[in-house]
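FW: tagging you since you asked about this chain on Friday. Here's the raw sequence from the shared folder, copied in full. Didn't touch anything.
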Amino acid sequence: MKFSVVVPVFNEEKNVAQLHKEILAVMKPLKKPYEIIFVDDGSVDKTYTVLKKLKSIKIIKLRKNFGQSAALDAGIKNSQGKILITLDGDGQNDPSDIPKLLNKLKKDYDVVCGWRKHRQDPALKKFISAGAAFLRKFLANDSIHDSGCSLRVYKKECFENLDLYGEMHRMLPALLKWCGFKITEVEVNHRARKFGKTKYNYKRIIKGFLDMIYIWFWRKYENRPLHLFGSFGFLLLFFSFAFGVYLIIKRLFFNYPLSDKIWPLVATTGFIAGIQLIIFGLLADLVVKNRRQKNFYKIQKIIKK
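HL: got it, structure written out here
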């Protein structure tokens, strides 16, 4: 298998048939073996019913709505292609841009991301995305303009030993860049949504921000969390100990009363907190070194037609 097209969908009953038709129209002229994978992320409308009527398709049905990252992970893990092509199921990504991304991938890149330079989204969504891009520049520094565009092509090896969950699909370029993969982007067409409702809401904004902090932590301390927590712990121990010595000297040599002061409690609490941070760092180090991979979703069935 040369290409695998992975499309996560959630309540897109009016979009999936047309999108499938457009993908077929793009993939057939490439004259290479391919598969089209639609991952039904727990849709509660007729999305799954519509998908079952389509030909030349693999359907992965999840037991409930686990989120776009989990659906993408399920599609990727059950794909066979050497090159993965991903796009949204709402019809806003234009499949006709796929050859453009594939041509760019040939130039010694591992990942090619779509850049929706002229977005067809509401002003509020654009404003929020601009704010997220500003934060991402400092926390993630993925060197691309548009981390929210799902239209991308990857070499399959990018996903070895990599699990996706939360809103991590947006942070994939940053994750892969830190792993040493070569990433670039090309301008792509972005279309206005014709049917259905956007899944973008305040919950996804909060989750995305938290995942951004997690990625920052993962980048710097994935294999050495003790360095982070231990450093803070030792600093707290040092300053608490020094402050305690200072209070003792004041009491013994300058007759400074401490019985009615809060400062001894501050020094003692800081010292204990420093020890706890070091212990926490040690435990985190053990967890990282003994972690086991697991899927954060459940597949109900897989249908190949």
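FW: The radius of gyration is 25 Å.
HL: agreed, and The chain has nine helices and eight strands.
FW: great, closing this out.
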